[in-house]
């Protein structure tokens, strides 16, 4: 099979600011039959390894530093020998989970990551966290949005390292300008499209966070 996206759903606990929630996370495998990127390794590295199979993992890419998006990164990296990538502004969140193991590479806005012929542009989209990023594969019509944009609106704000006006600016300036047919693969829940979400901006603003 050629270049494709595969979804693995893992379950665990999200902890921030003293609160704990049970969550299901989407882990995305991007690649082909030979090699993959793993996006947002959450909770269960063994389940992720089963989905990877015998393919080479070229990188483990974290869209942001919340524990439920990175807590399987180190055990996964230890098995597959791949570097862990994270935006520099989320390194402090990373350290809350992995105090003795820094990321291997810090992501930059506009950087292009390539796997199996797929080019993924890093879009810095702060708001849910200061270092949140999305990955845009323009030639394939894919966006991996982490917790920046969901089916139904922006990711949560109101906690540490987050800000509602900032996430709205990120979504309007970086995401809603994309092709409306772009498929948005989210960090939790169902995928959506840019076209399905863009008409609801005024509702999000009225709702606020």
From TrEMBL:
One of its GO terms (molecular function) is hydrolase activity. It holds the Pfam family Lactamase_B. The keyword Hydrolase applies. Gene3D superfamilies: Ribonuclease Z/Hydroxyacylglutathione hydrolase-like. Keywords: Hydrolase. Residues 24-188 form the Metallo-beta-lactamase domain. This is Hydrolase. It comes from Saccharopolyspora thermophila. The lineage of its organism: Bacteria, Bacillati, Actinomycetota, Actinomycetes, Pseudonocardiales.
């Amino acid at each position: 099979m050629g270049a494709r996206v595969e979804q693995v759903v893992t379950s665990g606990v999200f902890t921030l600011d003293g609160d704990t929630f049970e969550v299901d996370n989407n882990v995305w495998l991007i690649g082909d039959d030979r090699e993959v990127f793993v996006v947002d390794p959450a909770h269960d590295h063994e389940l992720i390894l089963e989905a990877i199979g015998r393919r080479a993992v070229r990188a483990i890419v974290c869209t942001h530093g919340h524990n439920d998006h990175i807590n399987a990164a180190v055990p996964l990296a230890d098995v597959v020998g791949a570097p862990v990538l994270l935006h520099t502004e989320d390194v402090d969140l990373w350290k809350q989970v992995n105090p003795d193991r820094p990321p291997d590479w810090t992501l930059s806005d506009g950087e292009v990551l390539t796997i199996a012929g797929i080019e993924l542009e890093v879009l810095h989209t702060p708001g849910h966290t200061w270092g949140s990023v999305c990955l845009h594969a323009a030639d394939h019509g894919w966006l991996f949005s982490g917790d920046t944009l969901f089916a139904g609106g922006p990711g949560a704000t109101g906690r540490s390292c987050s800000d509602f006006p900032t996430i709205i600016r990120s979504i309007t300036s970086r995401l809603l300008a994309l092709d409306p047919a772009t498929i948005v693969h989210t960090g939790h829940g169902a995928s959506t499209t840019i076209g399905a979400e863009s008409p609801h901006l005024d509702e999000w603003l009225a709702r606020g966070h």
